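Aim 2 progress. For Polymerase nucleotidyl transferase domain-containing protein, the working sequence is reproduced below.
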Amino acid sequence: MVSNKNDIIMFLQTHKDEMAQRFGVVSVGLFGSYARGEAREDSDIDIAIEIRSKKKSLGNFLGIRRYLEQQLGKTVDLGIESTLKPLAREMVAKEIIHV
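Predicted structure tokens for this construct:
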């Protein structure tokens, strides 16, 4: 189970290639309370991804979320960065840490 921003970033960096092979992930970033260093015990982990066009499917989206939750031991709020609404995308852009 992860406990802080550095643990999550290290995990994402270490597993980026596996996520690319299994699910078609081409970019991944951490945002939200963990990225800001404001996470509490009950905080979820906010992660934004992009998936290669040929791999975009509901199954892959749910698969990557399940994979991240199992590996990180916390609930993951997963979003596809390019599909966020403009206001949300603007807020995420201010704090996202891409790995």
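The radius of gyration is 13 Å. This observation will guide construct design in the next reporting period.
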